[in-house]
Amino acid sequence: xxxxxxxxxxxxxxxxxxPAMREAMRQAEVGDDVYGEDPTVNRLxxxxxxxxxxxxxxxxxxxxxxxxxxLHLHTRPGQEVVCERRAHVYDYEMGMPAAFSGCLMRPVPxxxxxxxxDFIAPHLHLEQHVHQARTGLIVLxxxxxxxxxxxxxxxxxxxxxxxxxxxxxxxxxxGARIFNAAAALGVPVAxxxxxxxxxxxxxxxxxxxxVGSLLAGARSWIQRARVVRKMLxxxxxxxxxxxxxxxxxxxxxxxxxxxxxxxxxxxxxGLARLPGIRLDPPQVETNIVIFELDEGMDAAALAGxxxxxxxxxxxxxxxxxxxxxxxxxxxxxCAAAIEILAGLLRQPAGARPA
Length: 354
Ligand SMILES: Cc1ncc(COP(=O)(O)O)c(C=O)c1O
Prior knowledge:
Number of strands: 13
Helix content: 25-40%
Low-confidence stretches: none
Shape: globular
Strand order of the largest sheet: 2-8-7-6-5-3-4
Bound molecules: pyridoxal-5'-phosphate
Oligomer: single chain
Distance between the termini: 25 Å
CATH class of the largest domain: Alpha Beta
């Protein structure tokens, strides 16, 4: 059977709700969640807390809001937040650490996105110095999106949390794709996230829900997070229609991720064979494939040619493209994407199909 077009590899956020999700949304029991009266939201929050083995969880509209609520609660204005150089909280959250929490980001470069304590330690300001902002928080990202979806192990997370806690510093986990890490490592999300002070994870990425993320943590901290969510306009009233899809994503989404990861490996192996492309397939651990183009090639231009040929993806640098697998791309579509790119690389850049 020929693959469906377009093949959308821009992100795992592009998935559409399944028929079962739409049915669950139709039937969802709802109430006003700002009063804590939406039974479906309450069920989703309770289930998330149970899966992550935390006292409580909070449904938020987006991963960005979840991360920024956490930053706000863990810090005071004038403090620094340490994160990896390519972290989502630094590059893609609209300057909110500064705009909303009055914090300065301290992005730390690493060769491969693994922000271990050895990289963090030299960047900490532990005493209140007359010249420098004090460190208030460390943020890790698992999987690390812009580092090619690498998965941090439980030992990686534990080590950073242990060192930070010994210095009295909290650690937040941007676990937008923590279920991908769990699938890749064969370790439950509760174990991967156990030592973190707070965890954000997304339903609307690989798990396939149309909307929503959760924050998980201690009950008193989640109560405070609920207040900050309201400040940000995140009190969503009859949000049970969204939570109903989220519950299905939470129960059924994780089982899909192994297939997404296999598709990403297929893409990586196919890409590595193409001329002009630099990629080491074993570095692809989950559902994100970032590859470099040879000198003289232009990622945005190639993304434009791919889109015209039916493959949608994003340029993530002047010579880097990102392909992301998800439940709405099949194995056949992945194979077709490779063939289409191979065809484009054989044509001179100016020669477009009629
Ligand atoms: C690692 C990471 N964290 C946070 C987010 C933010 O999620 P949202 O798009 O729901 O705000 C994203 C979104 O792509 C992400 O990749």
